[in-house]
Amino acid sequence: MLFSTKACAVILVSALTILSSTTPAVEAHSWMDCVNWKFKNSKVKDFSDKGGHCEGYARRFPVGKAFGTLDSAYPSRHYQQAGNPSKALPCSDGKHGKDVGSDETRANPVSKAYGGKWGKMTVTKVGSTLCVRWPAKNHAEKNEDNTIVQINLSKVRNGKDISQQELLKNTIAKLPYKNCGKASTADKRPCGGCFKVPARASGTYLMQWRWMLNPGEWYTSCADVQIGK
């Protein structure tokens, strides 16, 4: 069957429209790539792979994956809190949420979520600086709002995960999302921010990275952080 030049152009435009409407969904959402980023140069806050390395990860975070690729690789990491965000699950269980992420529920013991094929747990001290990293996923451009990343740290030591409502009472930092470096694509720009570890008794605590993409639309990543004096 032969098509006119005009008909072919219409078909091509339609195909490109369908592709453009589906592709961003794969690249749209972010997550905490690293909980404890260490810079090679303390004076240069470079969150790229050339600028440092990771010393602590989120729960069941697969090591060995290229930066920013876990939206298309298994397991995916973007967990969107469905329903009322303040009452939603604080950490993905791999089943709930509009975009189902990997299982970030608390392991028993907590060490089972780290080591081997997973990244290691963060070990730090009160008063130390922790720097977290995340991929831009096309949300750090000039036309994008500079949304916030909330860092919540439970006060419950060596215990079960607290609710999202309780976590919201323990926000220890608010970081600008668009604090990003350069990369070959807007999708893979490395972003991050730093904060001081507040006073806590020695023990292991739930830390939550919580990002607001749009008003009322939050994505989370959870980690266990071992805090000492």
TrEMBL record:
Keyword Cell inner membrane: no
Signal peptide start-end: 1-28
Comp. bias (Basic and acidic residues): 93-106
Keywords, sorted A to Z: Signal
Keyword Signal (UniProt): yes
Region listing for Disordered, in residue ranges: 79-108
Name assigned to this protein: Secreted protein
